[in-house]
Amino acid sequence: MSPAMTDMQMTDTSSQNSNAGPVKRFLRATEIDTRLLGMVGALLLIWIGFHLTGFFKNGYAAFLTPRNLWNLSVQTSSIGIMATGMVLVIVTRHIDLSVGSILGFCAIVMGVIQVNILPQYLGLGHPMIWIIAVICGLLLGAMIGALHGWMIAYLSIPAFIVTLGGLLVWRGVAFLVARGETISPVDETFSLLGGGPYGAVGGTGSWVVGLIACAAILWILVSSRKRRTEHGFAQRPVWAEGVLAVFGCGTVIGAVLLVNSYMWPVGIVTQYAAANNITVPEGGLDISYGFAIPVLIMVGVGIAMTILMTRTRFGRYVFAIGGNPEAAALAGINTRWMTVKIFALMGMLAGLSAVVASARLGSATNALGTLDELYVIAAAVIGGTSLAGGVGTIYGAILGALVMQSLQTGMVLIGFDSAMQQIVVGSVLVLAVYIDNRYRSKSK
Amino acid sequence: MSKTQTPLVDIRELSISFGGIKAVDRVSLDLYPGEVVGLLGHNGAGKSTLIKMLSGAYQMDSGEIWIDGKKADIRSPRDSRDHNIETIYQTLALADNLDAASNLFLGRELTTPLGFVDDATMEAETRKIMARLNPNFKKLKEPVSALSGGQRQSVAIARAVYFKAKILIMDEPTAALGVHETQMVADLIKELKNQGLGIFLISHDTREMMDLCDRVAVMKNGQLIGAERVEDVTEDDILSMIIMGKNPKKAA
């Protein structure tokens, strides 16, 4: 790039900076998405609101406690995992109403495999059982999704109809497979994937995870700065990079401290101590939960999906199809095959959610995941995915899932009955989309 | 340009019909390097349909396309690009939610050695080509929906120029543009022509076509009425070909 152009850009940004308020200047310098800030703000508001309401109404504030927040994170994972896939589906102007039923069907099949089939051949508790079950669940989900995608892309049946059919069909098939029975107990290793005292990585493990995450944040900041220098693009000011590093690492370390301050209950500690020949000292033994495995799965999925959407051709094509399907086709993108792949991915994520949900429950029932499709779609939409297509983020969908789950948990804690919960969740969904529309039209 | 050399594009007896209506009916047309051939005709005369078979958006029912003396099998937009044919569509075919660089490289993204899209390099390349085509172009980071008609047009044109097309198809490139931007496109067409590209140009503006083209081909009801050198015909001749479907030279 010519030096003249670099000069021009620099004067450009500095002149923009000089006539903006301090908040705007801060946002511009750090390049933080204002939508992200808005969602985090809304989330904090909900959390503090429930905490205070609990305090004034019931005399004790239960929301902002390590125990509740830890449980909240576990409860969010199943919906959160599926919401990341729903972003792709909605961005390409489709919808998937079948994810809850796919989840139920996959859970039942995995249950049958690990409870009724594999122990006969491998013996009960064989270490391969959970691996085979999980692989079967993921493959089954992907195959069902691919079937839906094929019907949508190649038979030109609208996604709404195909997946509405899927919603009924797979729930029915799930019932037939197990004749409506509940299948339990699931394999012991498998059940760790659902969380619980043993299904968490513990205090030390959480620190390891946290430090790796901090290192990754710093590496991303440094390498992006290096790339911008290479191409002579405008840089963030150094202080802004510092703020981002402190915020990012601070959030991670805060999360580690939080999950580590949630201790195993006495009963579990005694059981664990007895099993491992540890004598419990006087005053009890403090063992931290640490990050729950399903939460780590969700975070892993979130990172992988973010990379897929922002750093690969596949993700670029997803957005292009959402923005202008005709242009995408004229650019040589095989939009039909893309649709099959997107729905297959959605199905696989529903299979993964089936692992988490049935492991958490410790059993598989054919009703597992009922109504999940609506929460998943709501999470994606609250997270800023536009139903008109072309716009959406993975982190938004996960935050959206967290908002939905926070509302539900919070209302249970302050003693709202389920009718009231439905009214609130429904209203919040509509309100969130309204605010989002206003924000979008204003920012244009 | 001499007619003895191999034509860049040789369209032979191309036909396509939609629901029994012959949109393009046994049309033959050729294009030589460094030549601009204009396609004229009413709406629905079959110009865009003819061009879309060449760019792979439609698949012909019968006929042959020869590129550089070799028979070409064009079944998809990708095949067309593989023959160095670039098309600028009337609708511009841009994904409005993506920025200029993503649109320019759509379907042909530059990747890092690990296979990830290399946004930084693509942005730098876009900056370079835009500095040449449209120095006023600054909004590189914004979705193209935020751009003016002329700026959107330059993104579409940059696509053709960047990937070193040999054959360029432009479907009403100046329809949505102001006077200044129209002139810019006209200058660019002349520049590309001098570089030896063959260009098919579709437009309704007869005067503009007389100015820019070496030959004009007139279509009516899916058939080719005639393809004449601009110096051999008057504007009135062309108009009568468009309206009456009669070739004054053949009638004479």
Describe it.
The complex is a heterodimer of chains A (about 450) and B (about 250). Chain A is mostly helical and about 450 residues long. Chain A has two domains: about 30-195 and about 290-444, ABC transporter involved in vitamin B12 uptake, BtuC (Orthogonal Bundle); about 200-290, no CATH class. Chain A has helices at about 5-20, 20-30, 35-60, 65-90, 100-120, 130-155, 160-180, 190, 200-230, 240-260, 265-275, 295-310, 315-325, 325-330, 335-360, 370-380, 395-415, 420-444. In chain A, helix 4 runs antiparallel to helix 15 (about 335-360) and helix 6 (about 130-155) runs antiparallel to helix 7 (about 160-180). Chain A is globular and about 60 Å long. Chain B has a domain at about 95-165. In chain B, the strands form two sheets. A six-stranded mixed sheet of chain B has the order 6-7-8-3-9-10, with helices on both faces. The longest helix of chain B is centred in the C-terminal third of the chain and has 16 residues, at about 180-195. Chain B is globular and about 60 Å long. The chains are: A mainly alpha (about 450), B alpha/beta (about 250). The interface of A and B includes residues 333 and 390 of A.
Number of domains of chain A: 2
Average pLDDT of chain B, to the nearest integer? 88
Please state the structural category of chain B. Answer: alpha/beta
Strand content of chain A: under 5%
Ends of chain A: how far apart?
Answer: 30 Å
Provide a count of the helices of chain B: 9
Which shape of chain B, going by the Cα principal axes?
A: globular
Number-wise, the strands of chain B total: 10
What summary fits the major beta sheet of chain A?
none
| Shape summary of chain A | globular
CATH class descriptor name of the largest domain in chain A: Mainly Alpha
CATH fold-level assignment of the largest domain in chain A = ABC transporter involved in vitamin B12 uptake, BtuC
**Which second-level CATH architecture of the largest domain in chain A applies?**
Orthogonal Bundle
Fraction of residues of chain A in helices? over 70%
Low-confidence stretches of chain A: 1-17
The overall pLDDT of chain A, averaged over residues, is 89
Poorly predicted runs of chain B are none
The number of helical elements of chain A comes to 18
